[in-house]
Automatic annotation (TrEMBL):
Stated name of the protein: Aspartate--tRNA ligase, cytoplasmic
Xref: PROSITE patterns: AA_TRNA_LIGASE_II
Group of enzyme by EC: ligase
Region (Disordered): 1-38
Length: 400
C-alpha cells in the first residue's frame, strides 16, 4: 500500500467521522428543541411567575396591596395581592412553602402544582432568595391547625401568581432568624447567633428583624403618647436650638463644633428655652428632641446623644400641681403601651424575656421622711438632711 493510498483512506475516515459527529449534534439539537417545546407546552403558568422589570413609574396598576397584619379569617376565600419579603422557603415534592414577612408580621404561603401553578412555577418559587421582595396574588384560606411559627396563625395564602420585584443576593452576611435568637439559646442548642459587631456592620439587614421593628415602634409610641397626653393637658410643643453659642449647663461636658469662623456648642438641654417660654406666659410647654452630653462614660450605656422628653410648667400655689401632671403623663404612657402595643411588647419579649411591667394608678407618692424610713429599714444608712444619693437608693424604695 502506497503512502498516498494510506493518506486517502485516513481522510475518508475523518470525513465519515465528521459527518457522523455533525449528524449526532443535529439530533441532539432537535431533541433539545423538542424537549424545550414540550416544557413550554407543559408550563401553562409561565405568565404567572417570573422576575418583574424594574419599577420606574411607567404604569399605574389598579391594584390594592393588602397588609399582612390585616390577613385574618374574615378575609377567607378572598383573592388579594401582597407585597412582602421572602423570609424562608421550603420545597417538598410538588409544593413550596414560603413565609412572607412584612415588618414584624408574617404569613405562610403555599405554591402547589395544580390548576393555577405548574411544576416550573413551584421550582421558581423555591429558588427565590431570602429577603427578596415579591408581589403575590393569592387566595386567603383558613387553616385547621394554627401556624405557630407565623404571626398570622389562622390563615395561609394559596399562591396563584408570584413575581420578584427586588432580588436579594444569595448569600447574606447574617440570617434574620439567627439575629433574633435569645441570648444563651444558641449555646444550648448549638444554633447560630449573631454578634453585635456583625449586626452593626449590617445595620440595614438587622433593622429588618421583628425585634428591631417592634423596638422602633415602641419608641415612636412613647413619643406619641407623651405628645398626645400633654397636648390634651394644654401644653404647647416647642422646638429649641441645638447649636448654641455657650454651654448651657457648665462648660466641661459639651461638644464643640465649628460654626462659620467661630466655635459653637451642641445643646446639653432645652432647659433655658423652656424657662424663657414660661416667663413669656406660655404656662405649659414640652419638647421632644436630641440632647448632647460630652460625658466620658465607662459603661456600656452611653448618654452622649439621646432623645429627651422635657416638660416645663408654671404652678399656681403648690409644686404638687407639677407632680400631678408628671405622674399622670407617665401613667397615660404606660396604659397606652399596655393597651395599644401588645404585639410589639410580646415580640421584644421573645428575644429579651422580662416580667410584665407594673405601675400604679394613681401613682404611689411618698413624703421624704417616709422614703428615708423605708431606706433605713432596707439597710441604707442616711442622715435626715441627705439627698437620695444614687439611683440604687430610689430602686430600694420599690424593692421594699
Amino acid at each position: 500500500m502506497t503512502k498516498d493510498t494510506v493518506q486517502g483512506a485516513m481522510e475518508e475516515e475523518q470525513q465519515a467521522q465528521s459527518k457522523k459527529a455533525l449528524k449526532k449534534q443535529q439530533k441532539e439539537a432537535e431533541k433539545a428543541a423538542k424537549k424545550a417545546e414540550k416544557q413550554t407546552k407543559l408550563d401553562f403558568a409561565k405568565d404567572r411567575y417570573g422576575v418583574s422589570a424594574m419599577v420606574q413609574s411607567q404604569q399605574k396598576l389598579d391594584r390594592e396591596l393588602v397588609r399582612i397584619q390585616d390577613l385574618t379569617p374574615e378575609k377567607a376565600d378572598q383573592l388579594i395581592w401582597v407585597r412582602a419579603r421572602v423570609h424562608t422557603s421550603r420545597a417538598k415534592g410538588k409544593q413550596c412553602f414560603l413565609v412572607l414577612r412584612q415588618q414584624q408580621f408574617n404569613v405562610q404561603a403555599l405554591v402547589a402544582v395544580g390548576d393555577r401553578a405548574s411544576k416550573q412555577m413551584v421550582k421558581f418559587a423555591a429558588n427565590i432568595t431570602k429577603e427578596s421582595i415579591v408581589d403575590v396574588e393569592a387566595v386567603v384560606r383558613k387553616v385547621e391547625m394554627r401556624i405557630e411559627s407565623c404571626s398570622q396563625q389562622d390563615v395561609e395564602l394559596h399562591v396563584e401568581r408570584i413575581f420578584v420585584i427586588s432580588q436579594a443576593e444569595p448569600r447574606l452576611p447574617l440570617q434574620l432568624e439567627d439575629a433574633v435568637r435569645p441570648d444563651g439559646e444558641g449555646e444550648e442548642e448549638s444554633r447560630a447567633t449573631v454578634n453585635q459587631d456583625t449586626k452593626l456592620d449590617n445595620r440595614v439587614i438587622d433593622l429588618r428583624t421583628t425585634t428591631s421593628q417592634a423596638i422602633f415602634r415602641l419608641q415612636s409610641g412613647v413619643c406619641q403618647l407623651f405628645r398626645d397626653t400633654l397636648t390634651n393637658k394644654g401644653f404647647v410643643e416647642i422646638q429649641t436650638p441645638k447649636i448654641i453659642s455657650a454651654a448651657s449647663e457648665g462648660g466641661a461636658n459639651v461638644f464643640t463644633v465649628s460654626y462659620f469662623k467661630t466655635s459653637a456648642y451642641l445643646a446639653q438641654s432645652p432647659q433655658l428655652y423652656k424657662q424663657m417660654c414660661i416667663c413669656a406666659d406660655f404656662d405649659k410647654v414640652f419638647c421632644v428632641g436630641p440632647v448632647f452630653r460630652a460625658e466620658d462614660s465607662n459603661t456600656h450605656r452611653h448618654l452622649t446623644e439621646f432623645v429627651g422628653l422635657d416638660i416645663e410648667m408654671a404652678f399656681n400655689y403648690h409644686y404638687h400641681e407639677v407632680i400631678d401632671s408628671i405622674t399622670d403623663t407617665m401613667v397615660q404612657i404606660f396604659k397606652g403601651l399596655r393597651d395599644n402595643f401588645q404585639t410589639e411588647i410580646q415580640t421584644v419579649n421573645k428575644q429579651f424575656p422580662s416580667e410584665p411591667f407594673k405601675f400604679l394608678e394613681p401613682t404611689l407618692r411618698l413624703e421624704y421622711t417616709e422614703a428615708l424610713a423605708m431606706l433605713r429599714e432596707a439597710g441604707v444608712q442616711m442622715g435626715d438632711e441627705e439627698d437620695l444619693r444614687t439611683l440604687s437608693d430610689c430602686f430600694s424604695l420599690f424593692v421594699v
